[in-house]
């Protein structure tokens, strides 16, 4: 392909457009945090790193996720603990993934690369997590980079430079593992690629070097954990503690321990729950667009991946199957929790698979029947499952496919079709941004910044557990500062003095997220929630969603 000057390359403007949209998405549609894993996991430990406590470890399995925590800590050290600094890592990861998609598809027409990038970046949940304190987009980048390295070695370098690519692959995989152990879900995919290459008698040095490098780095990692904790398997024990529900409400994942639940729950998980989640969240869009490309290969060519397109198609199929069926424990059969963020790594792979075939359909109506059948099937299943507003998205995609199938091959028609698909993918993101503007996160942040953050007077703020976490995070986890947040469960242990100001922070959204009732709380706190204003309660700030009250008689908290 002839090189164009950079200023004439549509990929540059696509990349700049995505950067601009990331800013719009973050500042015009910021939803905030969940208040458990993100803040008390990555935010808290990121602050530890920012304070110089590198490789800080305890019994919490989140503390071992250095790949994401270290970068978060770096930006906290540079810019302080705030939502902008928290967003940098995930945003940069998304942009790096975009560049890698462009690189993988550099031999295709430029419009194919642009289309793949739009399929990836406009995935509803990829964009949602683009500014969140979560490592799942980082895992998506690492796994995609790993498959891209194998692709480059096999198809661009024609099997040369085996040690170089084996070393790079091992580094990427170990980085993925120290970011989040969910990368182990894809072990069967790498293993099957190895087996196929061995059976086809090709690339054996590459896999030998990869195995040796991975073993060596794994042993170094275990030795490092041993030096820090005295137990090389401390991380595995921490994960087991999480499965055993030893970390308290919100910090464990015992609800994903299928070994302790009825068989019906496990069967539901591995049979159709993942597909149901994909349809209800919109992730099925990238996958449905990739299906015609997967079906275009003869089975023998596909399973031996002798071409680049067959390779990516096989990687996608194996990744979907592995993420659905692979166990997360060696003790019992425990598929991963069906939280949609755990499957974000599928999106860039699906985008690379889908883009060339979707572009060919837009321009020449190739694979017309496959696109019609798949789009119709997804819409029918979505309607049957009552997935809500996404039914309209699937209806729009099906309608666009039907319309393109009957219209002649014209450039403006192809462009209109692709533009329509882009708008259909964009619609849920815009809707999510509108919903975020109705959420109270930004308002409660302003209340804490304006009324509490700079207070010099010793103060106690009582609230629900998620709002407590928000407050601790927004006060930069200052455990010895004058203002301290406590949830209502700590009332029995708290002592109140006349020198300490006592506040109650009410937030309807975090109350709902915390799933708590104030019925059994002291009368003065119930008064705050029920809009009763005795003389002992001073209104500091009050709106429909968020309110801050000062209690002038803290001893009332010891009464029913």
UniProtKB/TrEMBL annotation:
The chain crosses the membrane at residues 12-30, 85-102, 109-127, 133-151, 163-178, 184-199, 206-228, 281-299, 311-330, 342-362, 369-385, 412-430. It is found in: Cell membrane. GO terms for molecular function: pentosyltransferase activity. Keywords: Cell membrane, Glycosyltransferase, Membrane, Transferase, Transmembrane, Transmembrane helix. GO terms for cellular component: plasma membrane. It is a multi-pass membrane protein. It comes from the Bacteria. GO terms for biological process: lipopolysaccharide biosynthetic process. Residues 72-213 form the Glycosyltransferase RgtA/B/C/D-like domain. This is Glycosyl transferase family protein. It comes from uncultured Aureispira sp.
């Amino acid at each position: 392909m002839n090189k164009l000057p950079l200023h004439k390359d549509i990929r540059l403007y696509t990349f700049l457009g995505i950067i601009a949209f990331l800013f719009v998405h973050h500042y015009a549609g910021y939803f905030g945090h969940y208040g458990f894993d993100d803040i008390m996991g990555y935010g808290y430990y990121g602050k530890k790193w920012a304070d110089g406590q590198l490789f800080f470890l305890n019994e919490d399995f989140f503390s071992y996720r250095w790949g994401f925590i270290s970068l978060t800590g770096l930006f906290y050290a540079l810019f302080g603990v705030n939502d902008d600094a928290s967003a940098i890592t995930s945003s940069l990861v998304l942009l790096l993934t975009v560049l890698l998609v462009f690189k993988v598809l550099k031999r295709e027409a430029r419009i194919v690369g642009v289309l793949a990038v739009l399929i990836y970046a406009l995935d509803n949940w990829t964009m949602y997590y683009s500014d969140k304190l979560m490592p799942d987009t980082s895992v998506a980048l690492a796994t995609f980079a790993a498959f891209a390295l194998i692709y480059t070695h096999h198809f661009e370098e024609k099997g040369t430079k085996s040690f170089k690519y084996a070393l790079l692959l091992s580094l990427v995989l170990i980085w993925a593992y120290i970011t989040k152990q969910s990368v182990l879900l894809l072990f069967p995919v790498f293993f099957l690629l190895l087996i196929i290459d061995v059976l086809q008698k090709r690339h054996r040095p590459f896999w030998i070097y990869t195995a040796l490098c991975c073993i060596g780095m794994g042993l170094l990692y275990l030795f490092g954990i041993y030096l820090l904790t005295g137990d090389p398997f401390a991380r595995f024990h921490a994960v087991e503690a999480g499965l055993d529900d030893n970390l308290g409400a919100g910090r464990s994942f015992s609800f994903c321990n299928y070994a302790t639940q009825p068989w019906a729950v496990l069967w539901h998980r591995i049979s159709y729950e993942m597909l149901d989640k994909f349809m209800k969240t919109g992730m099925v869009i990238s996958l449905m667009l990739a299906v015609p490309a997967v079906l275009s290969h003869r089975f023998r060519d596909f399973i031996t991946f002798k071409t680049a397109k067959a390779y990516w198609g096989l990687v996608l199929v194996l990744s979907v199957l592995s993420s659905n069926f692979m166990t997360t424990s060696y003790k019992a059969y425990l598929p991963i929790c069906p939280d949609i963020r755990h499957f974000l790594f599928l999106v860039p792979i699906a985008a690379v698979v889908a883009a060339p075939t979707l572009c060919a359909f837009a321009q020449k109506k190739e694979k017309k029947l496959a696109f019609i059948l798949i789009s119709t099937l997804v819409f029918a299943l979505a309607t049957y499952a009552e997935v809500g507003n996404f039914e309209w998205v699937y209806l729009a995609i099906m309608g666009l496919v039907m319309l393109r199938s009957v219209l002649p091959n014209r450039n403006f028609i192809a462009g209109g079709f692709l533009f329509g698909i882009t708008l259909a993918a964009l619609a849920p993101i815009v809707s999510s941004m509108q919903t975020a503007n109705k959420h109270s996160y930004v308002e409660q942040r302003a209340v804490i910044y304006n009324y509490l953050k700079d207070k010099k007077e010793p103060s106690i703020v009582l609230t629900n557990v998620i709002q407590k976490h928000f407050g601790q995070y927004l006060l930069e986890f200052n455990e010895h500062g004058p203002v301290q947040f406590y949830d209502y469960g700590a009332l029995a242990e708290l002592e109140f003095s006349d020198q300490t100001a006592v506040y109650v922070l009410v937030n309807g959204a975090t109350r709902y997220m915390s799933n708590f009732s104030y019925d059994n709380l002291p009368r003065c706190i119930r008064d705050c929630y029920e809009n009763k204003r005795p003389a002992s309660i001073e209104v500091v700030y009050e709106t429909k969603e968020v309110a801050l009250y000062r209690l002038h008689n803290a001893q009332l908290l010891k009464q029913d």
